[in-house]
Amino acid sequence: MKNPVLPVFLLFVLTFQAVGAEPNTQSHARAYDWLQRIAEAPRQQNYHGTFVYYADGHIETSQITHRVDHDDEYDKIEVLDGMARIVYRYNDEMKCYMPGSKKVYTETRWFRKFFPDLLPHPTERIRDNYNMEIDGQERIAGYDAQIIKLIPKDNLRYGHKFWIDIDSGLLLKAAVIDKEDIVEQYAFAQLKIGKDIDEESLSTESISTQNWKQVDLTTVHLDEGELKWRLGELPAGFEKLAEMRRKLAGKSTMIDHIVLSDDIATVSIFIEPVKTDDTPPVPGFYSSRGAINIYVRELENNKITTVGEVPLNTIKLIGDAVFAQQ
């Protein structure tokens, strides 16, 4: 079954064949340092470019402008194909403009995950779940790129391939791989790094929002154990990052939300009560575009929806691990 829960910004571009890889022992150690650069570079660089998302035969083009001013960051991300969407970000404060429906969604971002800012700061536990290799160099959008491969040690997660600008450390292209198949790709088609970016290019004043509906998507972060929901045995490598209550688009009440990660893949668990006048949830698997899989089950009159960029067997193991504290 198809479900419209999608990563908003992903991309694709053709590249040339990679040149020879380093020996594994040396490659594994250096690859971890490159992952650190991927995590740091988007927070330190000005950049402006156009990137493409490709998955399941679908291509979507977006334009991004990112500016750093001392300790402050600013983003503008505009989807150029299909339904118009424009996201503005100032540090963790985000606004998403939807001209078609005349709505503005505001939210405090709780987790970074917009290309090219895809990775948190990795920890040593990545080594427990992935083999890391340096795999030659290619040229992407006019920049020399170092290629890094993450090869999963089990069938619980996808593989990943990253193309990183050698000078700045900025991620230029990323692919999610299931065995030998590319599940989805992101890549810059055009990019300028390190140029001055004026404030006007990141201003929202050019958008007329008269008579638009303002929707505030509230997030309340909770301490460990505040939710009544607990997690049993999890797939190897996955740990809980946070628990919270969130106001989501289209929902009338706050939803319980638990987030897990293996330092690369992220999985969310959404838990909401099933009201007597609601249509009963249909348990089972739902497919989304690209790497995102969805698993739904019902527990004690609650709908548990597990969503993440992991294979179906992993999404089920995580969804089935949820239980209510008595």
From TrEMBL:
<dbReference type="GO" id="GO:0030288">
    <property type="term" value="C:outer membrane-bounded periplasmic space"/>
</dbReference>
<dbReference type="InterPro" id="IPR038484">
    <property type="entry name" value="MucB/RseB_C_sf"/>
</dbReference>
<dbReference type="InterPro" id="IPR033434">
    <property type="entry name" value="MucB/RseB_N"/>
</dbReference>
<feature type="domain" description="MucB/RseB C-terminal">
    <location>
        <begin position="225"/>
        <end position="322"/>
    </location>
</feature>
<protein>
    <submittedName>
        <fullName>Sigma E regulatory protein, MucB/RseB</fullName>
    </submittedName>
</protein>
<dbReference type="InterPro" id="IPR005588">
    <property type="entry name" value="MucB_RseB"/>
</dbReference>
<feature type="domain" description="MucB/RseB N-terminal">
    <location>
        <begin position="31"/>
        <end position="203"/>
    </location>
</feature>
<dbReference type="Pfam" id="PF03888">
    <property type="entry name" value="MucB_RseB"/>
</dbReference>
<dbReference type="GO" id="GO:0032885">
    <property type="term" value="P:regulation of polysaccharide biosynthetic process"/>
</dbReference>
<comment type="similarity">
    <text>Belongs to the RseB family.</text>
</comment>
<feature type="signal peptide">
    <location>
        <begin position="1"/>
        <end position="21"/>
    </location>
</feature>
<keyword id="KW-0574">Periplasm</keyword>
<dbReference type="InterPro" id="IPR033436">
    <property type="entry name" value="MucB/RseB_C"/>
</dbReference>
<dbReference type="GO" id="GO:0045152">
    <property type="term" value="F:antisigma factor binding"/>
</dbReference>
<dbReference type="Pfam" id="PF17188">
    <property type="entry name" value="MucB_RseB_C"/>
</dbReference>
<keyword id="KW-0732">Signal</keyword>
